[in-house]
Amino acid sequence: MQNQLLKLGNRVFKYKLLVVICWLTLILFSIIHLYTSKTINSENELSGLDNTEAAQAINIIKKDFGLKSGTSYALVTDNNIDTSKLEYLLKINFKQITKITEIKGLTYHKNKLLYLDIDSKYNFIDIQNFTPEFRRIIKNWSGQNKTKIYLTGNPAFHYDGDKSGKNDSQKGEIFALIFCFFVLIFTFGALVSALLPLIIGATTLLFFNSFIRLIDLQINTISQVMTGLLGLALAIDYSLFIVSRYREEISNGDDSKDAIQKIFMYPIKTIIVSSLIMICSISALLLPDVSTSRTVVYNIFIVISISLINSIIVLPTLLFYGKNILDKPEFLTKMIKRADSYLFWKKFAENIVNHPKKYFSLSLVILIILSLPVSRIKLWEAVHTITPDNTESIEGYRILENDGWGGELIPINIVIKANKLGGVYDNNFISYIYDFTKELEKNPKIASVQSITSWNKNYTKQDYFSFYSSIYSLDLFYQNNNFIPLINSSTGNDKTIINVYPKNLLDLNDTHQIIDLTNSYAKKNNKYQVLIGGTVARAKDFTFELYRYVPQMLLVIFLGIYAILFFYMKSIILPIKAGLMNFLPILSSFGVLTLIFQYKFMGNFFNVQPNSGVINMVPVILFCLIFGLSMDYEVLILSRITEAYEDTNNVKQAVIEGMSRSGSVITGAALILLAVFIPGAFSSSPVTKQICIGISSAIIIDSTIVRLLLVPSFMMLMGKWNWWNPFTSDKK
After folding, report:
1. In this predicted structure, what is the pLDDT of residue 407?
2. Angstrom distances, CA of residue 592 to CA of 210, 354, 549, 685
């Protein structure tokens, strides 16, 4: 690998002018393309396996009952407001609206709920993009009539989530660039050296956004925020490693060409390994059949690749052309160099290596304590985690919630298949539905049940037999609009729907219990096929699909990273140690998330919702991201220690030298990552907030307790066994 990198370095040096010209041309093209191209495609609703019970139920409801879930808007207003003129105005202006229906609540409500059904020929991306125009008309009418109407519903949730994701991403990137600038100035003691990583980071984001629009790649709220922040963090961190090593070699007396060759031999080699590890970690998210996580993976793959190319091809050429001004202004360089970080880290490292057992035990105890809350973690399958609390769609949703609207918004849909002979009107089938309905109505957690045997509370089972026998023979049933949606009258009369409305919309434990009890009853009374669907049931599918591959994901990550580190470090022990130690900051960060979002520790500070928990998708995404990110520090410190060990053949001296040379760089890299991700901890989007708090806590734990205490003390305890390799004859 080293020979190939040296050849690459020579080619970059040879064609440095061409590299700069191509880079500047790409910048110009990207700016023009972003200005003139259409907006990025937002991803459709999240998906999971298509063969689960909930997925089958949703498909049957769509195919046999003509009900397309998740594409209707909802209007929320005061019950006393006459909205007939607004409804007419919307229908006239928007041909996409096929029907506007007022939903009757199960009890009296102060607010009115209207559903806007959209023509099924439009896909979900088109539908959610109707939101701003709908709101413009509604706002104008509301202003004229001195009232307030909220547009909510699934398309509005996704639109508001996407919009807030863009705002969060832009604000986070601007804050990160400003903060990183000061971190880099303090690290390098020079303005030009500090600007170079920022330029690489900014152009990485520019190229990424232009590229995904060029290939028309879909992006969701999570990937939009994470790729922007991660791309910026990686590009600046990679640049930090390269610039610091280049200046170190120049200060040691090397000329520019020799310094560039050395950065290709060491930091660029380390960066490539770190990138491969990051890609390996993230690729595990491709195993679950979930569109959200796969979109995140594809976008991160692209931004890592652009960060890598920008750092190892463009940055060395900029270093060469700017070699004479890297230390400008001189007064700043002289002032900061007075505080010699090398001496500080050398003393720190000497203290660690002289008391390895004490520091190893202390760091391990701290990590175990931080990890303890994970044993009680409960995943929260929130329905609208992508949408911030301060958006119109959530405000409308909260109004309905406070007004007692619960199950009407998100019912549990039970599809029951009758026998072809007799269909839904067979007495045996009606008897089954009647008993099923009565069993559900006994549950205190259920507000109401809607079925073909629930519309008349005074009817007995025999009354329903007589009614359906008579109405079926006279073919009058099809004229009753109250019951047609519960029977697939146009595709065979062999299926029916039971809609179950929970009392508490946001208490997912209640809904889960209802689903479990329904499943239990269906299994005991298995005369007919029963499929349980609905939004919450589908969310359970989503969680199940994300986590059923956890063993395989761990295997992919561990084996992949072990192979990469084995070939990089030529050691059997170090890759195992690196992999195992990476689990510690991850578990600790999960413990922090559990404390904050489940037990509400510092909940007011982070504006945690009272009924929230750890969002189902967060731990698995965090695991893969943190595993890859933490390897940056691991590979950097191990590479410097290994490099020193090869020179001295002394473990103690190697650890001291490696930590002395990498301590300030690791600190700077950690501060940069924190600057990028900490603003997201105060995001209005729940999922962004949790991911950024998880990453930030992991970075703090990883860059302090793990890398500065646990790793060096453990390496001292292991001694020369760190580099044991039975496949080589080199005996150190």
Report:
1. 63
2. 36, 31, 24, 18
DSSP 180-207: HHHHHHHHHS-HHHHHHHHHHHHHHHHH
Mean pLDDT in residue range 97-101: 84
The secondary structure element, H or E, covering residue 249 is: helix 221-251
The SS3 of residue 380 is strand
pLDDT, mean of residues 467-474: 65
**3-class secondary structure, 583:** helix
Give the whole-angstrom CA distance, residue 160 versus residue 162.
Answer: 5
- The pTM score is 0.77
| 3-state percent breakdown (helix, strand, coil) of the chain, nearest 5 | 70, 10, 25
Q: What is the CA radius of gyration of the chain?
A: 30
DSSP state of 219: B
State the angle between helix axes of 550-569 and 618-648 in degrees (0 to 180), rounded to the nearest 10: 20
Residue from 271, 200, 273, 269 nearest 231 by CA = 200
Tokens of 551: 């063993």
221-271, pLDDT tens digit by residue?
677 777 888 888 888 888 888 888 888 888 887 787 788 888 887 778 888
Sign of CA dihedral 595, 599, 600, 602: negative
Lowest mean pLDDT among 62-66, 344-348, 464-468, 725-729: 725-729
How many CB atoms within 10 Å of residue 558?
Answer: 20
- Write out pLDDT tens, residues 331-356: 666 666 555 577 788 888 888 889 99
Domain boundaries defined on the chain: 2-39+158-385+544-723, 70-157, 419-527
One-letter amino acid at 230 equals L
CATH code for the part of the protein at 2-39+158-385+544-723: 1.20.1640.10
- What is 70-157's CATH number, 3.90.78.10, 3.10.310.10, 3.30.413.10, 3.30.70.60? 3.30.70.60
Q: How far is 155 from 122, CA to CA, in rounded Å?
A: 12
Nearest partner of 415 among 502, 522, 543, judged by Cα: 522
